[in-house]
């Protein structure tokens, strides 16, 4: 996993140098933090990086739910799970 670099730029740069910031995000694998009055306000990311981050977050949420189910004993035998999946595939529900 590559670490996402961060750059801080003032909001005026977003107005005056949008193409440069866009290229920086897309080609440099960078998150550009936009500041207003010296404080962080927004973050600009390449669209592909945004989709990757969103997918990671969704996966982490699923894993957290699964971990919670295991802790609370809300589990089923693996055989039941495979049987359920086979039935779903037979029905063409997926």
Query: Residue-averaged pLDDT, rounded?
Result: 92
| CATH superfamily membership of the largest domain | YefM-like domain
Domains counted in the coordinates: how many?
2
The total strand number stands at 3
CATH topology of the largest domain: YefM-like fold
- Specify the overall morphology: elongated
Number of helices: 4
Question: Largest beta sheet, briefly?
Answer: 3 strands, mixed
Question: CATH architecture of the largest domain, please?
Answer: 3-Layer(aba) Sandwich
Which segments are poorly predicted (pLDDT under 50) over 5 or more consecutive residues?
none
Helicity range: 55-70%
State the order of secondary-structure elements, H for helix, E for strand. EHHEEHH
**CATH class categorisation of the largest domain:** Alpha Beta
Q: Would you kindly provide a brief summary of this structure?
A:
This protein is an alpha+beta fold and 94 residues long. The chain has 2 domains: 1-45, YefM-like fold (3-Layer(aba) Sandwich), CATH 3.40.1620; 56-94, no CATH class.
């Amino acid at each position: 996993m590559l670490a996402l670099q961060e750059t801080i730029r003032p909001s005026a740069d977003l107005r005056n140098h949008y193409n440069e910031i866009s290229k920086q995000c897309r080609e440099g694998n960078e998150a550009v933090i936009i500041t207003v009055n010296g404080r962080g306000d927004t973050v600009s990311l390449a669209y592909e990086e945004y989709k990757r981050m969103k997918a990671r977050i969704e996966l982490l949420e699923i894993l957290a739910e699964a971990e919670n189910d295991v802790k609370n004993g809300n589990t089923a035998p693996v055989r039941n799970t495979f049987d359920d999946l086979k039935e779903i595939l037979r029905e063409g529900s997926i």
